[in-house]
Amino acid sequence: MNPVSDLIKSLADQHGRNRHNLLPILQGVVEQEKYLSEYSMIEIARELDLPASEVYGTATFYSFLEYKKMGKYIIRICKTITCSMKGKNQILLAIEDMLKIHVGETTPDGNFSLLQTNCLGFCHKAPAMLINNEVFTDLTPEKVHEILGSYLNKKKEGGSHDN
Amino acid sequence: MTTSYQLKRADFIFKYENDWEEILSKCISRTPQELVNELISSELKGRGGAGFPTGLKWKITAEVEDPIKYVICNADEGEPGTFKDREILSMVPYKVLTGMAVCGYVIGAKEGYIYLRGEYFFLQPELNKAIREFEYYCKEINLDFTIRIFMGSGAYICGEETALFESMEGKRGEPRNKPPFPSNSGYMGKPTVINNVETLAHTYTIFKYGAKRFYDLGVQYSRGSKLFSVSGDTPKPGIYELELGMSLADFVEEFGDGDTKAVQVGGASGFLVPRKRFTETAIGFQGKLTGISLPTGGSMMLFNSSRSMFNVLDNYLEFFREESCGQCTPCRVGCQQLLMGIKAVKRGEKKAQYLDKLLRLTDTMKLTAKCGLGQSVANSFSSIVENFREEMIY
Questions:
Q1: Which terminus of chain A is less hemmed in, N or C, by CB atoms within 10 Å?
Q2: Is the peptide bond preceding residue B175 cis, with omega within 30 degrees of 0?
Q3: Is residue A45 part of a domain?
């Protein structure tokens, strides 16, 4: 059996199989898989006895529920006004330069995806970004080098750095 | 007559108080009526931005007869420039939890939820710890009340109360028609009180120190203190608790960098106030005292003369275009057209008069959009375009 199906089953056992349990299940899959494949959405629909179109419609509404394959670490840079004023673009360039990808892309080794996002709620410590669920604030290009460097090292050591 | 709207600092919300157990027991030894009356006489209004009287909200929901009701804490803090709710939940979560439990007691609800925005996922472990401790005490005093966290997934619109219910019910976060209001039909179609994080934290102050202590702060129609999230071109960005009713001039004197050109009050969905209006603008709810009184969820963004107001508006409109749920046409198409419109004027592809057409479009959106998102795009758009027209064109 596909491991995703097992995951979906156990999430449904944990949260319940009603419509109002849909979001926690979608979130649970994204936490593990980083995105919702068509296969996952169909499996969730089957598990909850919902039309697959409803699952798709709900999943694609939310910006944190990715439905395209994503890297292990999703970098989300805040692009809203204060971060934008305080040098978001320099941060973006530094990351693009370091990872050799543009916004919306994933590194060929499948480790990093780079995205922009709306207000993260750290306007007083702008610019800010999320890497998976971890927040980094008061960014400078140098600081970003350090942060990404530590992620790259962690990866080499084989250590996990989820969430 | 001189005005009394000077900047007055307050320190209630973040004051560490380790007596929540006592406050909670004291509250549930009083009758729900007493508690509601206390809240009404404090004149506390919702701190999320809309400013609905909190006591009245509790009262109306308490009067609806239904064995199942819900209390929801709205922690989907997504308005650009606001970050106070996160700080409350990480510094003084027990004040919010106590507020929720007292609300549950007053209205007859046994279940509470905190709708936490996806961006604040990292708050979860600590908050869950606080909830477990809190629920343990509720059991001890025989108060039947549980609290769960419901995570959002990155949608600004879910801060709109009915969109939030839809989201919790496992659907797209599309706002519902009102009425019915949440007091009659909220989460799962049940009577629901939904309050902002800060509002609930204020109820703690009111139940602990009494309504009068709270009422004595602020000015007429705008009682109490409020947290302000200060960001942008300021030497001291951060969160500050201030009494309501201050003039924007006093605010800028305290927080400006000496070159403040304009202040955005209330985030992207609020109003931009240019320098010439600082003195006549007060921060509070309705009731025109000296001039304009602006409500706010607490977002205060300062811009100095190095900033282009075109870029600011462009950034807001891109935000709204992405965050519009797409359900109603005025908002979905309106946001797209406004963004394309100002870009076209800037590039010289449209005449400057086209801005007037866009202003009329925002009037239409204000009248016809289904929810606060589409309706409030007009606020920032018209206040920026009317005050900085030349920056939109040249």
A1: N
A2: no
A3: yes
pLDDT, average across residues B224-241: 96
Are residues B315 and A84, on separate chains, in Cβ contact within 8 Å? Answer: yes
**Domain boundaries, position B293:** 219-304
pLDDT in tens, A45-75: 999 999 999 999 999 999 999 999 999 999 9
Both B244 and B321 in one domain: the answer is no
Cross-chain Cβ contact A85/B232 below 8 Å: yes
Yes or no: say if A89 and B311 are a contact pair by the CB < 8 Å rule.
no
Residues of A in contact with B86 (CB under 8 A): 121
pLDDT score, position A155: 66
Domain co-membership, B201 together with B223: no
Here the tokens at position A90 are 């320099």
Nearest residue in A to B231, CA atom: A124
Cα B169 to chain centroid distance, Å, stands at 22
Per-residue pLDDT at B288: 45
- Domain containing A88 equals 73-157
Same domain, B368 and B254: no
Same domain for A90 and A150, yes or no, is yes
Residues of B in contact with A11 (CB under 8 A): none
The CATH number for B252's domain is 3.10.20.600
Contacting residues for B4 by C-beta, under 8 A, at least 6 apart: B219, B245
Per-residue pLDDT tens digits for B135-193: 999 999 999 999 999 999 999 999 999 999 999 999 999 999 999 999 999 999 999 99
- Asked if B315 and A81 come within 8 Å (Cβ–Cβ), the reply is yes
User: How many folded domains does chain B comprise?
Assistant: 3
pLDDT of residue B382: 96
Say if the Cβ atoms of A124 and B307 lie within 8 Å.
no
Flag whether A68 is in a domain.
no
Chain length of chain A: 163
Indicate the residue of A21, A64, A119 with minimum beta-carbon distance to B78: A119
Nearest Cα residue to B106 out of B168, B62, B160? B62
Chain B environment of A57 (Cβ under 8 Å)? 172
Which helix (H) or strand (E) covers residue B75, if one does? strand B70-75
Q: What is the pLDDT of residues B49-77, one digit of tens each?
A: 888 999 999 999 999 999 999 999 999 99
Instruction: Write down the pLDDT at residue A163.
Output: 42
Same domain? For B50 and B177 the reply is: yes
CA B387-B392-B393 angle, to 5 degrees, is 120
Same-domain status, A78 and A151? yes
* ipTM, two decimals: 0.94
Whether residue A88 sits in one domain with residue A40 = no
Residues 38-77 of B with CB under 8 A from A: 77
Site from A123, A129, A161, A163 to mutate, B interface, most B CB atoms within 10 angstroms: A123
Checking if the pLDDT of B4 tops 60, the result is no
Q: Is B4 inside any structural domain?
A: no
At B139, which CATH number? Answer: 3.40.50.11540
pLDDT in tens, A122-149: 999 999 999 999 999 999 999 999 999 9
Q: Is B219 helix (H, G, I), strand (E, B) or coil?
A: strand
